[in-house]
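Name: Luciferase family protein
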Amino acid sequence: MTVEFGLDTFGDVTWDSGKRLLPQREVLRHVVEEAVLADEVGVDVIGLGEHHRDDFAISAPEILLAAIGARTSRIRLGTAVTVLGADDPVRLFQRFSTLDAISGGRAEVTLGRGSFTESFPLFGFDMADYHTLFEEKLDLFARLIRQEEVTWSGTTRAPLERQRVWPPLGEQGLRCWIGVGGSPESVVRAVRYRMPMILAIIGGSARRFLPFVDLYRRASDQAGLAPMPLGVHSPGHVAPTDEQARDEAFPAYKALHDRIGSERGWPSLRREDFLREVEHGSMYVGAPETVARRIADTVGALDLARFQLKYSMGPLDHGALMRSIELYGRQVLPMVRDMLARG
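Structure predicted for Luciferase family protein:
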């Protein structure tokens, strides 16, 4: 199986040269530039994460993906992730079927429950219904992408009776993944809906997730399904040397970690903890050969069909991100492919 390599961003609000945070409007324009470069250097897919807060600029991924699609010709256009529980499956289907049409069949969506929950009160949903909202809406969305006429009823929205939704998908359909943070229930759910899984591995060794990979394979086999692709999303940063990559990434990642940690009760990030993740965990930070070696190891260990690097690193500046993308596409990926071919 050919392995796909992607880049993900949440539109992290970045610093300017004076370490002042840029306006979100400027960050959004930078994201488009970054995706255009990713296409030019041979990256297979760009994934945009949805958030509704001041430290991440992307709240409407599909609009940004449409802008990217208009300036690119090859790269696939996806999300990382779409918070399905706080959205309407019918409108979501329409947005992605439209994106797929205008981009020549390059759209895909990754659905998730969301580790940030600000969208639920923002859009009038009760957090007490968090699990039901996702389960019911996933059931409806799965029908929408597979059936021309949909009949559905549930507790979270109005029922549908032999409803057709426009515009329709093309013959190839819509590629749809489920983002999983590491619960067995989420793994089994992905198999139940016959949607490939992307594991968000953002802490600890990737091998720590082997039990979930085994469960995914076993559940697919028990359901009589052909093996489905498996992907991983993890953070990283590429620079000319290991030292430069670490020195650039740490202060920015610490700013991101400590901001979120202040809301969730985490301790402040220490450099030694950061370096532990870089050397043995889930952060792919370093020179091209270092990052390539670690990505190839993860792809081989988990038997991946896709690896997506979250290249935005908190407020790390746009120039550093552009250089990281260039190195990832032009140096890291050829080395990874060569390492995998050699076994």
